[in-house]
Amino acid sequence: MDQIQIKGGKPLQGEISISGSKNSALPILACTLLTDDQMCLSNVPKLSDVTSMLSLLKSLNSEYSFSENEIKIISKKPKNIFADYNLVRKMRASFLVLGPLLARYGSAKVSLPGGCAIGSRPINMHLVGLEKLGANFEIEGGYVKGNVKKGLFGTEIDLPFSSVGATENILMAATLATGKTIIKNAAMEPEVEDLCNCLNKMGAEIKGVGSRKLEIFGKKKLTGCNFSVMPDRIEAGTYILALLGCSGSLKIKKLNNSVIQNLKKTLELFTNLQFKYENNNSLLVESKNILLDKVNIKTGPFPEFPTDLQAQLTAVLSRSKGLSVIEETIFENRFMHVSELNRMGADINIKGSKVYIRGKKNIYGAPVMATDLRASSSLVIAGLMARGETIIRRVYHLDRGYENLEKKLSNCNAQIKRLKS
Description:
UDP-n-acetylglucosamine1-carboxyvinyl-transferase, Chain, alpha/beta
């Protein structure tokens, strides 16, 4: 397996172009099942998770080409509406094909999902919402078997938690249901908004986009369209947090105004960061070479601090002043990076849903092992901050969500390279 080698202690200086959002591209790829027309998607990141989703869609009789971050894809009726375990187990987002398959074909057999090992992440909200639309389910042998006997019909669904995946699955199914569907307590993440914008461009009628209440007026048919995937705010946030830990100056490019404003709001509590310049698609960020002050922060659904940046922030705070506390409210067991950071000299303790980070002046390079996608990026940040050499193993986790990470960072004064196995 490949490894990442980092020689830390250097400030970051340069420009980084942000790729398309993984968390937007995956549900948008799933929504191509809702039409028999060709879809043309641009700004799609070249990631292993995207490759996994395309393999799943191919098994469901979709045909596609993928070149220069552009995917042309057309979905044809499969002989067997079956999403195999060996394809779905690779990532949780594969389960998002369930709603579109039920809406378009009236039946589906989809493996229970896999993906990052960060807690149970139950699918019951997906199933309960789809049942309210008229689907029936049974779980057998690790598979969800669903069918729709009399069609899907609009209804009102009040989610007990604003789950991104449940919102997306129910939303996609509702676009082809008869009548009006209301989703209350819907997820407001920008990636959900991006999916809504794509569906509306396909001929869906979704109102309340970007709010906690979505109204979907079902259509008999959706059409193909051209759509550009939004920039990846988590990738951008990861590089800005790396800058916060290493000091220096980065120009973050290929953003949009919405992502820029979101990043500034998310990271405004860090006074070491200075947002010096911005236009509609770029942001210049500078960070002073001084130890961070302690912070208390809690993750939560958008617009609160994103859980997908929690691990990276934990790494940054390992070099800081005082005792910082991060509470994780979205996923249990999302602290597997902590033991690896402690191997590098960090002083971090886990108590329930909180981590207590006693900041130090320095951390030190060490051999470490990635356990999931965001944990792997936290180890990269720690390696960039540390004195000495860090070797990160199991970097296939990194390839699930970061396009050309080592190249982007090495162009910004970081001593980082991939060691091929």
